[in-house]
Amino acid sequence: MSTTLTSQLGGAKGDWIRCPNCDASCRERELSSGEELRCTRCGATVLQFTGRKTLQPALALSVAGLLALVLANSSPVLVFSVAGRDQSGYIITGVRELIAQGYWPIAALVFFAGILAPLLYLTSVAYVSSACCFHVRLPRLVDLIRLSEQMESWNLVPVYSIATVVSVVKLRMLGGVQWEFGAQWVLALAVISLFVQQTFNHRLVTERLISMGVEP
Amino acid sequence: MKINNKLRVELARALVVTAALLYIPSNIMPVMTMTIVGKTEPLTVLGGVYELYDSGLPLIAGVVFLASFVVPFLKIAALGWILFLHGTPRLRERRNALHHIVHKVGSWSMIDIFLLAVLAAVGQLGSLAAVTAESGAIFFCIVMISCLLAAEIYKPRLIWETTTT
Predict the structure, then answer these.
(1) Chain A closest CA to B18's CA: distance in Å?
(2) C-alpha–C-alpha distance, residues B165 and B154, integer Å
(3) I want to staple B150 with a disulfide (CB 3.0 to 4.6 A). Which of A26, A106, A212, B15 is the partner?
C-alpha cells in the first residue's frame, strides 16, 4: 500500500485524515449505519459507513463485464444494407477503417476508450476485488487500484452505446439497418460498467487491504 | 512521474487555450463525408444535428447537439473560469462543484467520434455507400482530449490552494 493510501485512511478513530478532494485535514470518527463524514471545507465525502458491505458485487459484476466485453467485441454490432449489398460492423471494424483512411489518432482514441480502457478497468477491478474477497495478497495490488482509478473515467462504453443508437437512426435515413448479436452485449457492457462504478468502493478497498496487513 | 502544482496549472492553462482555439475549426470543418448512391455530402457537427432534426428526430438531434456542441463549449468556458480564478479565494465552492460537473459529463462529447467510428465501420459499400473521416474530426478529438486532460491535471485540491501561481 502506498503512503498516500495509508495517510488518507489514517490509523485509529480520532486521527486526522486527509480529504480526498481538497486535502483538508478532517478528524476521523466512528460512523453508524447510513452516516458519512463530509469535509467541512469542500463538502466531499471523506468517510462512509461501510458496515457489512463487501466487494463481492464488484467482483461478480466485473467478471460479467469482462465476459460481455469479449462477446461485444467478437460479434457484429450492426448490419447496414443499400441496394441489396450489406456490410456488418464490429467495434474494431471502425478502428481498422479509420486507420486505413489515415486517421490513426482518431482510431487510437476509439480503440483506447472503446476497447482497451474498459478491458483495463474491469480487469483491475476484478483483480483487486478478488484479492479483497478471498483475502489473498496478490502482487502489485496498489498499482492495480491506481489503474482502476485512472481507467474509470476513460471507460466510455456507455457513450459508445448511445453513439450506436444515433448511428442506427442516421443510417435508417440512408438504407436498411439491422441490429446484430453484438449490440445487446454492448448495451449489457455499458450497464454493467455503470454498476461496477457504483459497487467498487475505493474506501472499502483501502479498509480491506489494511485489514489484510498490506503495507507499502 | 510527479508533477508540481505550478506545472499542473500551466499545463492545464495551455490545454484549455488549445481547446478554445481548436473549437472553432472543429465546428466549421466537416468531421465526415457521407457518399450514398453517388451523392456526396460533407457533414459538420452542427450539420449532422440539423440533418437529424430535419428528419423529424428532434430528441436525438438534441442529445447530439448537447453532447457534441454545448458540452465542449461549456467545458472550455468552465475550465477557463476555474483556471482564471486559480490562487484567489473567490467562489471556491462553486469552482469545486463546477470542476466535479466537468469531470463527470466531459466524456459525453466523445459521442461524435464514436458515431464516426460506427458509421465508418458499416459504411464501406464501394460506390453505393462510403463514410470517410475528415480533418474536422482530428480538431474535435484534440478539443476533447485537451479538456479531459486539463480537468485531470488540474486537481480540485488546487482550487483550495492559497498561493497565486
Answers:
(1) 17
(2) 13
(3) B15
Residue A118's pLDDT is 96
Helices B5-28, B135-153: axis angle to 10 degrees equals: 160
What percentage of chain B has pLDDT greater than the value 70?
A: 96
Chain B residues 113-132 with a CB less than 8 Å from chain A = 113-126, 128-129, 132
Cα(A209)–Cα(A127) distance, rounded to whole angstroms? 13
Please tell me what DSSP assigns to residue A13. Answer: T
B1 has a pLDDT exceeding 60:
no
Query: How many angstroms from the chain centroid is the CA of residue B87?
Result: 26
Same domain, A40 and A7: yes
Count up the domains in chain A and report the number.
Answer: 2
pLDDT per residue over B73-107, tens digit each? 999 999 999 999 888 888 888 998 999 888 888 78
**Using an 8 Å Cβ cutoff, are B107 and A153 in contact?**
yes
A216 within domain boundaries = no
Range of the domain at A32: 3-48
User: Is there a contact between A170 and B52 if contact means CB atoms under 8 Å apart?
Assistant: yes
Q: How far apart are CA B133 and CA B117, in angstroms?
A: 9
Mean pLDDT of each 10-residue bin along chain A, 216 residues long: 43 71 81 80 80 85 96 93 86 93 93 95 95 88 90 90 89 86 94 93 82 69
The number of helix segments (H) and strand segments (E) in chain B equals: 7, 3
At A63-122, the pLDDT tens digits run 999 999 999 999 999 999 888 888 888 999 999 999 999 999 999 999 999 999 999 999
Same domain, A35 and A140: no
Q: Which of A40, A88, A109, A194 to mutate to test the interface with B (most CBs of B within 10 A)?
A: A109
Are residues A128 and A37 located together in one domain of the fold? Answer: no
Please tell me whether residues A114 and A175 are part of one structural domain: yes
Same-domain check for residues A11 and A95: no
Residues A21 and A87 in one domain: no
Query: Do A24 and A114 fall into the same domain?
Result: no
Region of residue A201 (left: phi > 0; alpha: psi -120 to 50; beta: else): beta
